[in-house]
Structure formats: C-alpha cells, structure tokens
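Thread amino acids onto this structure.
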C-alpha cells in the first residue's frame, strides 16, 4: 500500500495552556494536567483532502410535486435521466444509466428492493446519485447470493453498487443486506448522512473507493469482512475515511474502519468489535491467526484491527468503546490523538503506529493489551492515559526481548533503533505492565507531566528500559518494579532523580512517598503490583539536599492512584534517607541490565540507610 509523501503540518485542533506545568488533584479521584508544552502534530498533509459535506448531502427535503413516483411493481426500475424519483413498495431492482452530467435523487418511501441475481440498486453511470430514506419510513435492500454474468463481468459486488459518486442520506431507516459480498459499494465517493442505517454483509459492509464520509448518521454494521473502508491506493489525496459525528456500532470479522490513506475522526459515538474481540487474541500462537471468530478469509493482508490506516489516523474527538482481536488503533504511518475518550481492550497492541504516535489530549484507557502504546516515536504532550499491558506499557520500536524472538502471530519486528524515542512533556500517564513499563530502543525524554509505572515482578524486565539515554528536565516520574534489570535516569539530566533497590519485595498496594526535611510530601504513588525497585524524579528534588523515602501508609489529598505533590504521610511502615549528592544517585544492590546494562544512572549513593 502506498504511503503519503507530502510533508506539511496538520492544523492543530487542540489548544493547551501557555501556563507552566501544573497538576491539580480534584477530590482525591480525578487528576487534571495542564502542560506548557506546545502540542505537536504529524508531518503528513491532509490539505488536499475534501472533508466537507455539500448542502445536498445534508438536505433531506423532497420536492414531491416535481418528482416521478414509482409505485409497487415486481419489475426492474430503470432510470435514464436527471430528476427525483420516489420509489414505494416492492421492486426487483433499480438501475441507473444516465448521462455522466446527471444528478439523480432516488427517494425510498417504505420501499423494498430485492434482487435474486445481482445488485438490488446498480448505478452504472451518472454524475452523482442521492439515495434518500424518506422521513419516518422503513426501507429494505437485499441482493442475491450469486450474481449473473452481467454483473460479475463488471466486478459488481454490492447490494448497492455504484460507479458514480453516491450519497446515502435521509431521516428514515434503511436496512441493506449484502448476501453476495458487500452491502454498499461506490467506486467513487461514498457519503452517508443523517439516516438510521443497518448493514449486514458476507464480506465488507461499506466501501467507497475514493473516500467514505459520514455525518449525523446512526450506523449499525455486522460484517463478515471489514466494516467500513476506503480503498484508493493510487492517489495520495484519496482513499480516506472521514467521520464528523454520529453513532457507529460495528461488529466485523476483519477491520472495523479502514482507510487506505488517512482516517480522520472529529466526533461520534463508536462501539467496535473485531475478530471476535480481545479474548480471541491475534497474539495467540495456537494456529488461529486470520481465522477470527469464524472468518474464512485467507488473504495475507487481512487483519482484525478496529481503526486502521496506511498513512495517518487523527482523532479530534468522540467516544470509543473498542474490543479488538488485533490492534485497536493501527497506523502504518503516524497516529495523532488530540481529544476524545478511548476505552480499549485489545488482543494485540492498544495503539500502534509504525512511525510516530502523538497524544496531545483526550482520555485513553487501555484495559487489556499485549503492548499498550507502540511506535518508533511516542510523543505525549497532554491527556490522561491509563495502560494495562501483558508485555510492555509504552514501547518505542521494540518490546521485551522474549517477545521480539518469540514469533507471535502478527508481531511487529522492531530492533534497536537510534530513532526510537519516548518524549513526555505533559499529561498524566499511568502504566501497569507485565513486561517493561517504559521501553525505548533508543532514548527517553521527560520534561513535564506525571508518569506513574507499576512495572514487572519478574527479573527479566524493568519498569524502565532504554538503549541510549533517559533524560528528565521536568515533570514527575515514579517507576516501580523488579530490580533485576533496573535502570534509572541518565546523569545528563537537569532534574535530580534517585533509584532505590529495596532489600526485599513490597506487596502490591503499598504506597510510596518522598518527603522533604519537614515531612512534607513532594511526590507519592500507590503501585498496583509487588515491587522492590523504585525510580523517582520530581521538581521538588534538589542536589545537595536530604529526603526521606517512605514505604506504606497513606497520603492526604492523594488521588485514586495514590499520587500527590503535597500533603502529609500517616502510618508509614519504613523510612529510608536519600542524600542527593549528584543529579542521579542509586541505593541498594543492582543486578543491572536492561538495554543499557545499568542505564547511566550516575553516581552511586552507597548502601541503604533505613530508619524505623
């Protein structure tokens, strides 16, 4: 599939505060983060893509006085010239073969179009056709399970099949059954506005070659193949899917929404299940790859991703409930999330981009995944992110070594990469990972925001894992996990940090707090898993000062994750003195390792000093 090569800036739709980094704790449950960092966008241009809707797309009125009314008949309805046609009752089919300048409006008014040997509606030629479901009417379209040679010779494969631009709209309801392959197919643009549309198909449900655009529609899809897709791979400005708003309930054996170039979503309510859901994980090695939930497709390119694009995925709003066998969000190029709410359960990656993954805002909850967020470069400037992963939480071009060599179905073959980066300048990031919590095959940079990691309990992974450097210049990071592969921040950082390896593991749900000499909390966290290694950096730490690391107890004013940047600790179980003799110090024994075999942790602080 071709990749967009035009390099320009995408217009940013998210405006962040110009104030300094600030984290507010609200009623102990909700954390709101405001970042001073400028939001970033991808370098892929969508300037020449038409994301607009015409007046005729969204005008559902019907001039009945000037229309031709086609009443119930078993005969085929043939339309050969421009005009408005009101179709009622039962018919064996509708064909449109008009001049290529003709604009035609077909109004379905309690119509039932049932074909036995081809498309129920076949648009051979016209400039543009509007298929309108009349207000408060119910309409049905269905094709045959086999097509005659008249249709197979022209590669027709949908119950509604159009070689011209097609708009399906209205204020009524329309049910389309694709018994041969697809339900609705346009070989040019396909626009869907306003109506309540139910689509069932043996193969792909809704397909527009040049684009699919939807606004204000209520769409329910049950597809044996892909749910909604655009397929033009020959023109970098086409092959896109744009959804402005509406509601979309999609159950697909393959991809939910797929764009050959760009998938852009401004708003909407989405419930998407692909490949039988995350319980039918594509990461399983039991030979079920490509056979999701009864899919019989054997094409190598098939997948069961929820949102998929070749060049770019942009999410500017909307509410998403995703349960996918394969990646929940997948781009072969870049992905950018500026706003919206994403609730994700994935059998593979939560969000994956081959190139850059940029998160400027929104609420992202990855409840289940193999790897949570994965890309060559991950940039987070804002938003609230909660990731649960059976392997790595945040992964820049890699993954845990065992997974990289394990040959899991559908895995992405990343190696050590100097271009791999994780950059966090704002937001609130919570990670619960069985593999590495934050893993970069290159570098890590943190300059703002809040990063909280409950990392692995096994010694083969670490809460923090990187190949080159991990520099922190701002923000708060508290990383907890096992000590076997422990790494801390590089001594080239400008903000102080420390790594502390405890003598023994601490049980899950045991809080951590750092306090100053007066007992005031400067950072705290409540890890959700057992840990014996802690890495902490926060703006309150100063070189040359002494602090206390407290284990156990509660922190006043902390949020649901135990995070606070102020307050007092009560009922602490253990206290350890931390002397920040340099910008990066470590305490306790360290087996060392990770990608960087010790991670340039800076000067050692000596043995632990425990006070009870």
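Threaded sequence (612 positions):
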């Amino acid at each position: 599939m071709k990749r967009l090569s035009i390099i320009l800036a995408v217009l940013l739709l998210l405006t962040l505060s110009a104030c300094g980094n600030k984290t507010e704790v609200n009623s102990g449950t909700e954390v709101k983060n405001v970042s001073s960092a400028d939001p970033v966008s991808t370098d892929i241009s969508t300037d020449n893509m038409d994301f607009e809707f015409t007046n005729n797309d969204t005008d559902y009125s019907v001039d009945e006085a000037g229309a031709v009314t086609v009443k119930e008949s078993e005969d085929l309805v043939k339309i050969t010239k421009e005009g408005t046609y009101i179709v009622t009752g039962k018919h064996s089919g509708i064909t449109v073969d008009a001049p290529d300048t003709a604009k035609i409006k077909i109004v379905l008014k309690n119509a039932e179009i049932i074909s036995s040997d081809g498309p129920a509606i076949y648009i051979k030629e016209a400039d543009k056709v509007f298929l309108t479901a009349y207000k408060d009417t119910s309409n049905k379209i269905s094709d045959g399970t086999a097509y005659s040679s008249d249709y197979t010779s022209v590669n027709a494969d949908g119950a509604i099949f159009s070689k011209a631009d097609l708009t399906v709209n209205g204020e009524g309801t329309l049910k389309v059954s694709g018994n041969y392959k697809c339900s609705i197919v346009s070989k040019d643009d396909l626009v869907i506005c306003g109506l309540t549309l139910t689509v069932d198909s043996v193969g792909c449900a809704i397909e527009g070659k040049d684009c699919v655009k939807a606004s204000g529609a209520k769409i329910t899809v049950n597809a044996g193949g892909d749910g909604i897709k655009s397929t033009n791979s020959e023109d970098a400005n086409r092959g896109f899917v744009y959804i402005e708003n509406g509601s979309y309930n999609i159950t697909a054996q393959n991809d939910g929404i797929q764009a050959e170039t760009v998938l852009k979503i401004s708003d909407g309510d989405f419930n998407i299940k692909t490949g039988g859901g995350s319980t039918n994980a594509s990461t399983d090695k039991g030979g079920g790859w490509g056979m999701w939930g009864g899919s019989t497709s054997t094409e190598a390119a098939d997948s069961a991703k929820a949102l998929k694009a070749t060049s770019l995925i942009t999410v500017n709003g909307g509410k998403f409930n995703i349960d996918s066998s394969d990646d929940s969000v997948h781009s072969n190029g870049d992905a950018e999330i500026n706003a919206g709410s994403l609730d994700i359960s994935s059998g593979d990656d939560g969000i994956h981009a081959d190139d850059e993954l940029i998160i400027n805002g929104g609420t992202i909850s990855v409840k289940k995944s193999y790897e949570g967020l994965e890309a060559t470069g991950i940039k987070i400037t804002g938003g609230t992110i909660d990731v649960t992963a059976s392997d790595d939480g945040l992964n820049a071009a890699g993954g845990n070594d065992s997974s990289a060599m394990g040959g899991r179905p559908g895995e992405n073959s990343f190696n050590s990469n100097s271009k791999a980066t994780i950059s966090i300048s704002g937001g609130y990031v919570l990670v619960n990972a069985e593999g590495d919590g934050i893993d970069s095959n290159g570098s890590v940079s943190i300059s703002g925001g809040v990063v909280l990691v409950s990392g692995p309990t096994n010694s083969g992974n670490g809460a923090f894992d990187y190949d080159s450097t991990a520099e922190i210049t701002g923000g708060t990071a508290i990383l907890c996990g096992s000590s076997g592969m422990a790494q801390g921040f590089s001594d080239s950082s400008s903000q102080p940090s420390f790594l502390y390896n405890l003598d023994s593991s601490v049980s899950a749900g045991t809080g951590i707090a750092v306090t100053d000499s007066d007992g005031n909390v400067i950072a705290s966290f409540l890890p959700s898993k057992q840990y014996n290694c802690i890495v902490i950096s926060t703006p309150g730490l100063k070189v040359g000062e002494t602090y206390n690391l407290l284990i156990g107890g509660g922190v006043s004013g902390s949020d649901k994750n135990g995070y606070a940047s102020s307050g007092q600790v009560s009922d602490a179980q253990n206290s350890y003195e931390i002397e920040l003799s340099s910008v990066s110090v470590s305490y306790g024994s360290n087996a060392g390792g990770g990608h960087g075999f010790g991670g340039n942790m800076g000067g050692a602080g000596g043995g632990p000093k425990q006070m009870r």
